[in-house]
Write a structure and sequence with these properties.
Helices cover 49% and strands 14% of the residues. Bound molecules: N-[(biphenyl-4-yloxy)acetyl]-beta-D-glucopyranosylamine (26M). This is Alpha-1,4 glucan phosphorylase.
Length: 820
């Protein structure tokens, strides 16, 4: 059903009016950016009606609400996605054409709201889409960073970070809600007073600095169901403007500090991925949005309910990793100090309201805060954590009398640090990993002691992705083809894709499928030419690795293998070799020197390989600048091969792997994260699996015995590749890649050389790459494989993931908004 406003003539009229109203211009005079704003306002108008309608329905039905608490929401552009979900994309595309406008150019005017780093933040965005589409009442709770994920520029092969000022033209899809502002307090001290009325101690927080948290709401549209949920992100403002008033009161210093605090707290997203830096400002950010969100949730609950002890019947807080874990102590504080409950009652409610998702086993990522910092910044919250810890240690002692090892390993406060994961597990009623293998590793390795003590809390929720963005919007050619073959139901029921299996041996269908892939490769080739100035051949194999740059993800293994292939072609020019384009996209955390060097290496190898006429263009290497959600959609659609080559056990799940699969790219990968489940769905014969298993890796890690030196000494081809890092082949500065070389071989390299088993897996990877080439040469076999990947990807929709969260953890009620 098309809304009246998306009826073409109405729509055109509204866009023209908005251009006039907003900019005092005619359509002909307006810039593309101004037209984008005008179009967005028209769309927002429709959304606001549904938003109000959803609100009404929620008020009437009083469903249980999930608050998805996350430091990151990597939303990507809203305009196109909203049009898809409103079922109006086609109409609007045509209407714009009639105005002489190209919808792609209009969409390209929107900045990517990049309020996240990578997988964890993008997962949160997919979850919000699925929650709205499945008719559940949900709020995303986060921070309105002034600067999101930095923009990456490549200069002379190096990554250079540029600020992402995403708000500079005003963002049309947000709504400031000053009436819901909340105060958040930092620092100061706690005074204890006896309260004779309630016969208990009263804790009074004084001498603090206060910040005003002001929410901005973004609409989250469900697919074709009129549901509009809310992503609520908090901005910080000073409580009172710095003025002479406070100066007169002698409060000058404090007024300046409060103003500074408000300005700095939401300034920028920390661009770290899987790495904890321990910065005080980061903890301030965490407490800031958590406290504001909890206050708002409690206030909302109390508007229509008078018994706070039943909060858990209507509210659940899902903590996206440990970043918002201070929520458990803050909820205790609000229930006790604001609502007047005693410890036991408050604890009972808190432990029924909070649940925790773990996203990584990388030890550098585990959040631990020095108690000195924590208690200074959040004195009352720290007191509460001490009491939670005291009681938990008593429990440990009861269960394991005399076993001090257990206390050492499981205490929330130990070695002068607050361990956020331990707090989350102790206070949460659910602890989940994000893929089957990852959850098993949590239970049997990382969190073994906790699993033994409280097995009932542990469960798995394999990640998923939204097909609305990553197929319907990102790959319209394939989306139309799928609809043509099996009807449109896949958009809300991805398991339908299995119906495509009947086409696996249908030559006509296979040809259509591969023609679409080819067109998408042409689209990407055009993008690469325009943005990178490199010409690539869409007839070559597009072999793609796009994800954050991290040693465990092993972009280094990929580029070393490219060097190896280059050497082979040079040594055997007559060799039969299918042309290949290796495409990379990755941001490195700004402070991660080795990761940045790997980017430089990729670009240096690209320079040499792409300019070597003697290899006849058989090999191309491209580094796509500024990989982000908007260009990801184009990249996934165009991939032949999906590189998922993390050291087994290290990648908790991965979600890019699912996006490639959905778009018909077979996985070249290790048995890690969700790759394991992908292979299970598609069959081993339709994937290229290599490398050591997670058991083998974990065994080496625990018992030693891995020796990259032996490989270096016994495999001359690998040795040649490593020598080329330091002999001037790719940089006249022979010291340029010395650190990378050393990281693989130098025994002084801490904690051990080649931590990520790059040399150990090299041969196995090269063989798997050989199998890729053989398979690709057989056109029919490849087409079948590609099609089956799409056909078997149904499990990996975030709709399935969300339904599992609802069934096992959240127990939400379905809400009807759209009357039939
Ligand atoms: C921590 C402290 C200070 C600053 C930043 C951080 C931090 C930020 C993001 C730590 C980890 C962060 O993200 C981890 C992450 O993205 N994990 C990924 O989660 C995905 C969704 O579950 C999985 O698919 C990936 O395998 C996992 O790496």
């Amino acid at each position: 059903m098309i809304d009246k406003q998306f009826e073409k003539e109405e729509f055109k009229k509204s866009v023209k009016e908005n251009v006039k109203f907003l900019y005092r211009k005619t359509l002909e005079e307006a810039t593309q950016e101004q037209i984008f704003q005008a179009v967005s306002y028209t769309v927002k108008d429709v959304i606001i009606d549904n938003w109000l309608k959803s609100q009404k329905a929620y008020e009437k039905q009083d469903p249980k609400i999930v608050y998805y608490m996350s430091m990151e929401f990597l939303m990507g552009r809203a305009l196109g996605n909203n049009l898809i979900n409103l079922g109006a994309y086609g109409e609007v595309k045509e209407a714009l054409e009639e105005l002489g406008l190209d919808i792609n150019c209009i969409e390209d005017q929107e900045p990517d709201p990049a309020l996240g780093n990578g997988g964890l933040g993008r997962l949160a965005a997919c979850f919000l889409d699925s929650l709205a589409t499945l008719n559940y009442c949900a709020y995303g709770c986060g921070i309105r960073y002034r600067y999101g994920m930095f923009k990456q520029e490549i200069r002379d092969g190096y990554q250079v970070e540029a600020p992402d000022n995403w708000l500079k033209n005003g963002y049309p899809f947000e709504l400031r809600r000053p009436e819901y502002a909340k105060e958040v307090h930092f620092g100061g001290y706690v005074r204890v007073e006896w309260d004779p009325v309630n016969n208990q101690n009263k804790f009074i927080h004084e001498g603090y600095q206060a910040v005003k948290a002001v929410p901005y709401d973004m609409p989250i549209t469900g697919y074709n169901n009129d549901v509009v949920n809310t992503l609520r992100i908090w901005d910080a403002e000073p409580i009172v403007d710095f003025n002479l008033d406070s100066f007169d009161k002698g409060d000058y210093h404090n007024a300046v500090e409060q103003e500074n605090l408000a300005r700095t707290i939401v300034e920028v997203l920390y661009p770290n991925d899987n790495h904890m830096a321990g910065k005080e400002l980061r903890l301030k950010q965490q407490y800031f949005f958590v406290s504001a969100s909890l206050q708002a949730a409690i206030a909302k609950y109390k508007k229509t309910h008078d018994d706070i002890t039943k909060l858990h019947e209507k509210v659940v807080f899902q903590m996206n990793d440990t970043h918002p874990t201070v929520a458990v102590a803050e909820l205790m504080r609000l229930l006790m100090d604001q609502e007047g409950l005693g410890w036991d009652q408050a604890w009972d409610i808190t432990t029924k309201c909070c649940a925790y998702t773990n996203h990584t086993i990388m030890s550098e990522a585990l959040e631990k805060w020095p108690i000195e910092l924590f208690s200074r910044l959040l004195p009352r919250v720290y007191q509460i954590i001490e009491e939670i810890n005291r009681r938990f240690i008593l429990e440990i002692q009861q269960k394991y009398p005399g076993n001090f090892e257990k206390i050492k390993k499981m205490a929330i406060i130990y070695d002068g640090q607050v361990k956020m994961a331990h707090l989350a597990i102790v206070a949460g009623y659910s602890v989940n990993g994000v893929a089957r293998l990852h959850t098993e590793i949590l239970k049997n390795q990382e969190l073994k002691d906790f699993y033994e003590m409280m097995p009932e809390k542990f469960n798995n929720k394999t990640n998923g992705i939204t097909q609305r963005r990553f197929l319907a919007h990102g790959n319209p050619l394939l989306a139309d083809w799928v609809t043509d073959k099996i009807g449109p139901d896949w958009i809300t029921d991805l398991s339908q894709l299995s119906k495509l299996k009947v086409y696996a041996d249908d030559e006509k269908a296979l040809q259509e499928f591969m023609t679409i892939k080819f067109k998408n490769k042409e689209r990407l080739a055009k993008y690469i030419l325009e943005h990178n100035g490199v010409e690539v051949d869409p007839h070559s194999i597009f072999d793609i690795q796009v994800k954050r740059l991290h040693e465990y993800k092993r972009q280094l293994l990929n580029i070393l293998h490219v060097i190896y292939l280059y050497n082979q072609i040079k040594a055997h020019p007559e060799m039969d070799f299918y042309p290949r384009t290796f495409i990379f996209g990755a941001k490195a955390s700004a402070a991660y020197a080795r990761a940045k060097k790997i980017i430089k290496l990729i670009n240096c190898v690209a320079d040499v390989v792409n300019n070597d006429a003697s290899i006849n263009g058989k090999l191309k290497v491209v580094f796509i600048e500024n990989y982000r959600v908007s260009n990801a959609e184009i990249i996934f659609a165009a991939a032949d091969v999906s590189e998922q080559i993390s050291t087994a056990s290290k990648e908790a799940s991965g979600t890019g792997n699912m996006k490639f699969m959905l778009n018909g790219a077979p996985t070249l990968g290790t048995m890690d994260g969700a790759n394991v489940e992908i292979v299970q769905e598609v069959g081993e014969e339709n994937a290229f699996i290599f490398g050591m298993s997670s058991d083998q890796i974990i065994n080496y890690e625990n018992n030693g015995g891995y020796d990259p030196d032996f490989i270096y000494n016994t495999d001359p081809e690998i040795r040649q590749v490593l020598m080329q890092l330091i002999n001037g082949t790719f940089s006249s500065d022979t010291e340029m890649f010395r650190d990378i070389y050393n990281s693989l071989l130098d025994k002084r390299n801490m904690p051990r050389p080649d931590q990520y088993f790059i040399l150990g897996d090299f041969r196995s990877y090269a063989e798997a790459q050989k199998r890729v080439e053989e398979a690709y040469k057989d056109e029919k076999r490849w087409a079948k494989m590609a099609l089956l990947n799409t056909a078997c990807s149904g499990k990996f929709t975030s709709d399935r993931t969300i339904q599992e969260y609802v069934d096992d953890i959240w127990h939400l009620d379905k809400v009807v908004v759209k009357e039939n």
